[in-house]
């Protein structure tokens, strides 16, 4: 069921939600959180679709805040709030309110959103694109316990990572970090299987891919070893090589779907490591609402502390025998000084 409201108020929107629940026969509110999506008109559809898929696991009230900038000088001085209320089958397993803000009300979006939050339920704010420099100090971000950004959508992802580290507040997270959860789990499990000491790491992936940088920062932070960053044609993160005193451990994913785990003394194993959809990523983030200390530690390690040189690969690398087909043998990168000691395990 859809209810369109023009030049409305938060009070009228709440009444429309109650009316919609009664019309579809679900007067009770069975949602576990409020998800506030701050986006533009161009990206609203994809974000709303991802949130709808995630709501099957986390029934929620989804508030989509779209700030519309009027072209007419007359419209810029007048305030207006338009809303589209969706309940029942049109809203997945929760409720959806699409808010379009015009004029002066653009500067007071938190005043519109606050009366629509579910009482006594956690709030998660998500910026699919154009996230603020400091999400915790953003008027809408200050309403949320968790704040989700995506540095991959930024024009300069690596600089964006640095800004995220400088402005980090407990509760911040990023979908670029969520994308490497399967990689971190697989590498930690591989190190659990053998008794060895890691002496060096190489992370290979697309240029300007924040997930590759975050994985390198996490490994350097947890293992206290030099990390070398290599470039490939992708897609995304393609390989991680751990040099150990017991032989190399290689996790190679050339096609973005199926990876191969290679360890000395053991047969190669195929590992499902597909690139996940946004709906899966946001659903994972909604599973935990406490601060992610591991992400904070990796983020604050710093991109600038990774290997001083970056290798670009354009042919198979015969040095490690991993069968990578991304290009010619790389030129050696300058050696990196050891990072400050941090004696945490790789798990």
From TrEMBL:
Which residue intervals are annotated with compositional bias (Low complexity) in the record? Answer: 330-347
Q: Which Pfam families match?
A: OpcA_G6PD_assem, OpcA_G6PD_C
Q: Where is this region: Disordered?
A: 306-347
Q: Which residues form the Glucose-6-phosphate dehydrogenase assembly protein OpcA N-terminal domain?
A: 52-166
The organism's superkingdom is given as: Bacteria
Question: What positions does the domain Glucose-6-phosphate dehydrogenase assembly protein OpcA C-terminal occupy?
Answer: 170-299
Protein name, UniProt field: Glucose-6-phosphate dehydrogenase assembly protein OpcA
């Amino acid at each position: 069921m859809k209810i369109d409201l023009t030049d409305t108020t938060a009070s009228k929107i709440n009444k429309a939600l109650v009316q919609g629940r009664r019309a579809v026969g679900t007067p009770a509110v069975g949602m576990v959180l409020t998800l506030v999506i701050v986006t533009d008109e161009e990206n609203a559809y994809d974000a709303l679709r991802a949130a709808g898929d995630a709501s099957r696991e986390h029934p929620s009230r989804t508030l989509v805040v779209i700030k519309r900038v009027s072209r007419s000088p007359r419209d810029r001085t007048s305030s207006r709030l338009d809303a589209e209320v969706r309940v029942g089958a049109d809203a997945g397993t929760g409720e959806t309110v699409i808010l379009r803000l015009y004029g002066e009300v653009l500067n007071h979006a938190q005043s519109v959103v606050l009366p629509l939050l579910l009482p006594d339920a956690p709030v998660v704010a998500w910026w699919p694109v154009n996230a603020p420099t400091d999400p915790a100090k953003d008027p809408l971000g200050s309403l949320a316990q968790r704040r989700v950004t995506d540095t991959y959508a930024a024009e300069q992802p690596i600089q964006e990572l640095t800004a995220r580290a400088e402005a980090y507040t407990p509760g911040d997270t990023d979908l670029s970090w969520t994308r490497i959860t399967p990689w971190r789990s697989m590498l930690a499990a591989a190190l659990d299987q053998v008794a060895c000491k890691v002496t060096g790491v190489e992370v290979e992936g697309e240029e300007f891919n924040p997930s590759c940088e975050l994985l390198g920062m996490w490994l350097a932070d947890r293992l206290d070893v030099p990390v070398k960053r290599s470039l490939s044609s992708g897609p995304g993160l393609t390989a991680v090589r751990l040099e150990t005193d017991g032989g190399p451990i290689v996790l190679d994913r050339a096609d973005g779907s199926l990876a191969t785990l290679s360890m000395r003394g053991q047969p190669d194993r195929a590992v499902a490591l597909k690139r996940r959809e946004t709906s899966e990523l946001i659903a994972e983030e909604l599973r935990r609402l406490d601060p992610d200390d591991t992400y904070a530690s990796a983020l604050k390690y710093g991109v600038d502390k990774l290997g001083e040189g970056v290798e670009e690969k354009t042919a198979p690398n015969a040095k490690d025998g991993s069968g990578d087909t991304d290009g010619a043998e790389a030129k050696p990168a300058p050696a990196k000084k050891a990072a400050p000691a941090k004696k945490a395990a790789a798990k």
